[in-house]
Amino acid sequence: MGFFESEIVQQEAKQLFEDYQSLMQVGNDYGKFDREGKKIFIGRMEELMERYRIFMKRFELSEDFMAQMTVQQLKTQLGQFGVTPQQMFDQMHVTLERMKSELEKKP
Fold first, then answer.
1. Quick check: helix, strand or coil at residue 81?
2. pLDDT tens for residues 62-74?
């Protein structure tokens, strides 16, 4: 069975996409959130990024040709912006840490 034929992989991909879309929609109002709302949003983003990191690691570790092609496509697309997948995750982490520190500064 191919990597993408797995029902588990399909379900996780679908769930990641839906959760990301939902979070981005809610995030449009981030500036209007109170302190607790911002903490919850940041926490959910951290959880989503960790799930995505694990999902991508499964692709990298798979010997399935299509999974490897997907990894290469991602690397190529990010490479056009001068970024590796690891740098993308690192930058998201830095951004979320900065958002948290901003919350801690405000009374």
1. coil
2. 999 988 999 999 9
